[in-house]
């Protein structure tokens, strides 16, 4: 017996369509943060801040 909502929607069909629909909203946000460096996306970043600071510090730069 198929599970259906009160309105008659086939629940398993909807679940299958959702599984095949691609990335979720949060997955898209994370992907964009990692690939474009978007604003307000620091929590998704894998950048090592201390490494960047040390690479940018004047004592490390050659003249």
TrEMBL record:
Polar residues bias locations: 14-23, 43-63
Region feature (Disordered): 1-23, 37-63
UniProt protein name: Small, acid-soluble spore protein gamma-type
Organism for this UniProt entry: Mesobacillus persicus
């Amino acid at each position: 017996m198929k599970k259906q909502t009160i309105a008659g929607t086939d629940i398993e069909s909807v679940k299958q369509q959702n599984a095949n629909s691609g990335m979720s909203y949060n997955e898209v946000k994370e992907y964009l943060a990692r690939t474009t460096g978007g604003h307000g996306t620091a929590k998704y970043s894998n950048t090592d801040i201390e490494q960047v600071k040390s690479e940018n510090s004047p004592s490390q730069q050659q003249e």
